[in-house]
Every structure is written in C-alpha cells, then in structure tokens.
Amino acid sequence: DTGVSQNPRHKITKRGQNVTFRCDPISEHNRLYWYRQTLGQGPEFLTYFQNEAQLEKSRLLSDRFSAERPKGSFSTLEIQRTEQGDSAMYLCASSVTRDGKGGNTIYFGEGSWLTVV
Amino acid sequence: DAKTTQPPSMDCAEGRAANLPCNHSTISGNEYVYWYRQIHSQGPQYIIHGLKNNETNEMASLIITEDRKSSTLILPHATLRDTAVYYCIVRTLNTGFQKLVFGTGTRLLVSP
C-alpha cells in the first residue's frame, strides 16, 4: 500500500494522559497536513508542513498540541493532558507541490480515532 | 476559499446514476472545483477535480457550468459501496499553501 499511513488507528486514553499519533505520507510528498474531524462535521485543518518546516497552524491547535516532522518524512502529532473534547478522528494528508494532475492534489490517510474517557 | 452549498442528503437506487450538485457562485477565475468522498469511519478519498472543462476519470464525471457557478458530480452506475458523504470544495492551485476547507457535504445513500 503506497497511500498515507496512520498509526495507531484507534486509541482510548484516560483524561490527562498524553497521546501521540504517527503519519507516514506518500513517498516523496513534500507537503503534509493534519486535520481533525468530530462526529457529523467535515474535517478541520490543524497544521501544515512543507518538508520539515511547520508553516501554518490553525487556531484550533492549542498549546497542548504539538506536531513535528523532523526529517521531512514522517510526522507525529502529540496531544498533552488530553481532555474529553479532544475525542475525534485525526487525519493526516500529503501532497506534492506539483503533480501529474496539474496541481496539488491532497491525499488523506484512514485516520486515527481518539477517545478520551 | 469560496464557499460551496450542497444538499444535506440524497438517495439513489443501485445501478442508477447519482447526480450530486454543488453551488459555488463566488468562485474565482483561478479556483478549481474538487470533490472528495468519505465512507463511514474512513479518511476522505479524492475523486476528481476540474477548472472549467468537464472531466472524467474511472470513478466519476464532473460537469461544470459555463459560468462556473455550479457543478455536478456524476457517479454513472451507483453501487452500495458509493454510500458516503460527498464534499465539494473550491481552492486555488498554486505553489503556495492552500488548505482544503470542508463543509458538511452531501450524504448519499445508495439503496438496493
């Protein structure tokens, strides 16, 4: 499978614990995005990397959230001191600056479900 | 990004064509129309995109009106596996950062 890979797919954690999600983008995709999706809503943008540089962050990304992409390949999203409101699906996506379709098509992974109890 | 308007839900019989409309009356000249779908509990799946010409691929066809203020995604022979939420999104395509802004989409139910 050469798509965007996310791990773990499901995580149940107690309130106050820290969790980390990993994303492996499509090979050679230099752009990487994190989104969050709650039930009944469309995905919401969290943050964006171009190579290893984090260039955009949404106001949704509170100081308890941190994302890294240390070598411009895989990325991690850490949530510290989790709260019940953090329960959601966390989506990773990737793209290249230009692709054969004449643009910057963004491809998503299957998501990581977080439940905070 | 320009806002899009989609019906909240649609039904389609298996084997028939599903025509999903999208209004994007404030679209700019350099903005593309993108369609994604999301099957329950999975990540969004890219379907197709276009600027002003009609587009077709192995998944669907995209018909964009001449004034570009609306478009229709066509699934020519819907199957039960096409039951999903379909999102219409407009965005520019350039080398700079462009995020996807999702609305609530159209929930398509394909029935036997």
What gyration radius of chain B follows from the Cα positions, in whole Å? 13 Å
Secondary-structure element order of chain A, N to C: EEEEEEEEEEE
Mean pLDDT of chain B: 92
Oligomer: heterodimer
Order of helices and strands of chain B: EEEEEEEEE
Largest interface: A-B, 30 and 24 residues
Kindly name the structural category of chain B.
mainly beta
Strand content of chain B: over 45%
Terminal Cα separation of chain B, in Å?
A: 37 Å
Task: Describe what you observe in this structure.
The complex is a heterodimer of chains A (117) and B (112). Chain A is mainly beta. Helix content of chain A is 0%, strand content 48%. Chain A has strands at 5-7, 10-13, 19-24, 31-37, 44-50, 53-57, 65-68, 75-79, 88-95, 107-108, 112-116. In chain A, strands 2, 4, 5, 6, 9, 10 and 11 form a 7-stranded mixed sheet that branches. The mean pLDDT of chain A is 92. Chain B is mainly β and 112 residues long. In chain B, the strands form 2 sheets. In chain B, strands 1-9-8-3-4 form a 5-stranded mixed sheet, with no helix packed on it. In chain B, strands 2-7-6-5 form a 4-stranded antiparallel sheet, with no helix packed on it. Chain B is globular. The model of chain B has no long low-confidence stretch (mean pLDDT 92). Classes of the chains: A mainly beta (117), B mainly beta (112). Chains A and B meet through strand 5, strand 9 and strand 10 of A and strand 3 and strand 4 of B.
